[in-house]
Design goal:
Strand order of the largest sheet: 4-3-1-2-9-10
Helix content: 40-55%
Structural class: alpha/beta
Strand content: 15-25%
Number of helices: 11
Largest sheet: 6 strands, parallel
Order of helices and strands: EHEHEHEHEHHEHHEHEHEHE
Shape: globular
Length: about 270
């Protein structure tokens, strides 16, 4: 396996997630930078992050991203995973000498959108319990009621959808009822999708809500941040073959090929 893989002469943008959730961020980025070379890295061998300890992730993610940066020489790294960002973003920035963009729950946006004053946050167990979320709530939603619910199973529903399968609606309904069944849940009007996998099942979540609820995430904001940080880059004039790399086995990824093809990802590699 090559140790210095590049896409043409232009350094790529590297997107990192546990699985396919980061495609929700990549989708918005491609709207702004359609021809930017892409390396999409998925840590399938480490999935699910939401069930791992902070200590384990804080040591695993910087090492893994260091290896990826050494191999692909990206212009910028996006940690397209809320759990990874809330736990390891500072650690990663301390070891890499290129810009690193993180993903944080859109609590500020939710606070500005809500009409009832009751907002919900759906995330993994690790994200929901993070002190960082407490700080965001204190800074931007102190006068609002914030309901939280950990719904790690939604990750697998999103992964199933990207494989072309029908997501398990029992999982989706359980995630939404985890918010709406709480005290004040009957006044919920805005929900933060605090895992990049969750926007992939936005339609299913809206169906399960029972009444109109605004479902928001931070993908557009992240995309604009990426575009701003790379505004001096000269991107290719046409889309080139993009790369997918995983810490897991390549064979199970075959089912995702049609979804990846929409992003020009047609080259698949394993991180040995």
């Amino acid at each position: 396996m090559m140790n210095d893989t590049k896409i043409g002469e232009c350094p790529p943008l590297l997107f990192f997630d546990t699985g396919v959730g980061g495609l929700s961020v990549l989708s918005e980025t491609k709207k702004l930078l359609p021809n930017a070379p892409i390396v999409y890295a998925a840590d399938y061998a480490g999935m699910p992050y939401g069930m791992k300890s902070e200590e384990e992730l804080a040591s695993r993610i910087p090492v893994l991203l260091g290896r990826l940066v050494e191999r692909y020489k990206p212009a910028l790294v996006t940690i397209a995973c809320n759990t990874a960002s809330t736990i390891a973003l500072d650690h990663v920035r301390s070891v890499l000498n290129i810009p690193v963009v993180g993903t944080v729950p859109a609590i500020k946006s939710a606070s500005e959108l809500t009409k009832t004053g009751v907002i919900g946050l759906l995330g993994t167990q690790a994200t929901v319990r993070q002190p960082y979320v407490d700080k965001l709530a204190s800074d931007f939603a102190a006068d609002k009621i914030l309901l939280r619910h950990a719904a790690p199973e939604l990750v697998y529903a999103a992964e199933a959808k990207l494989r072309g399968e029908i997501p398990d609606m029992n999982i989706v309904k359980s995630a939404m009822s985890g918010l709406t069944d709480q005290v004040h849940g009957d006044r919920l009007d805005t929900v933060i999708l605090a895992c990049t996998h969750f926007p992939l099942v936005r339609h299913e979540l809206a169906q399960a809500a029972g009444w109109p609820i605004e479902l928001i995430d931070g993908a557009k904001g992240i995309a604009h941040r990426i575009a701003h940080l790379t505004k001096e880059m000269s991107w290719p004039t046409e889309t080139r073959e993009n790369i997918f790399v995983t810490t897991g086995e390549l064979q199970p990824i075959t089912a995702y090929h049609p979804s990846f093809a929409e992003f020009g990802i047609r080259r698949f590699e394993a991180l040995d």
